[in-house]
Amino acid sequence: MQPKYKRILLKLSGEALMGGDAYGINRRTIEGIVAEVAAVARLGVETGVVIGGGNIFRGVAPGAAGMDRATADYMGMLATVMNALALQDAMRHAGVVARVQSALNIEQVVEPYIRGKAIRYLEEGKIVIFAAGTGNPFFTTDTAAALRGSEIGAEIVIKATKVDGVYTADPMRDPAAKRYQRLSFDEAIGRHLKVMDATALTLCRDQKLPVNVFNIFKPGALMRVVAGEDEGTLVHI
């Protein structure tokens, strides 16, 4: 298979790592995700990953009720570092070399985010996992994906979800919901579709960085997105 893209940025939610569990990391689920990512990386596709932290932060969120928003956001960033380390370990077991770079400085655990070094790792065929979001409160990991994708020169941001694209309505509740095959950024923003948050979408639009939303749990779906096939929903200029 000939990949359409040379360099991609994969956005993984923390919730994707839970599998059927209420919170935390399901080992079988993370191994399945890593197998899909490894297959793409072995084609020579340079792969960056931004990981969320909802699977861990959800477990402590009740205790964070009423907490200062910035403090809660920093807790969420630390959760993404934990997920990044778990992802790196699963990749090591799969025979894939990965490096974790964090937007927060925790040098005893992971190296700091340095753009030039990240790009060099990608060129060497290593997967780079970007942790701690943007390093700033009030920004989502969707925005971190748009930012890191723009910084490393990715050709597309691929957002992994539990559904196979963007729909006219919630397909879990409305059986008549239709999947969008393609959307413009302006349509996605104007219709308030849940592709990414508005900041992330606007940044991708301004940088002419397309976004593909797909189901990470559908076998071979990531490979089909990278091949440029009709998989998920493509949001473009």
Low-confidence stretches: none
Overall pLDDT:
94
Taking the sheet with the most strands, its summary is: 9 strands, mixed
Look at the structure and name the CATH superfamily of the largest domain: Acetylglutamate kinase-like
CATH class descriptor of the largest domain:
Alpha Beta
Helix proportion range: 25-40%
Report the principal-axis shape: globular
Taking all Cα atoms into account, the compactness measure Rg is 17 Å
Order of helices and strands: EHEHHEEHEHEEHHEHE
CATH second-level architecture of the largest domain: 3-Layer(aba) Sandwich
Strand content: 15-25%
The spatial strand order of the largest sheet comes to 4-3-5-2-1-6-8-9-7
Structural class: alpha/beta
- The total strand number stands at 9
Continuous helix count: 8
CATH fold node name of the largest domain: Carbamate kinase
Number of self-contained structural domains: 2
What this model shows, in words?
- By secondary structure, the protein is an alpha/beta fold.
- Helices cover 38% and strands 18% of the residues.
- It has helices spanning 27-41, 54-60, 69-93, 115-123, 141-152, 185-190, 198-206, 221-226, and strands at residues 7-12, 46-51, 98-102, 111-112, 127-131, 156-161, 182-184, 211-215, 233-236.
- A nine-stranded mixed beta sheet has the order 4-3-5-2-1-6-8-9-7, with helices on both faces.
- Helix 1 packs across helix 3, helix 2 (54-60) crosses helix 3 (69-93) and helix 5 packs parallel to helix 7.
- It is globular.
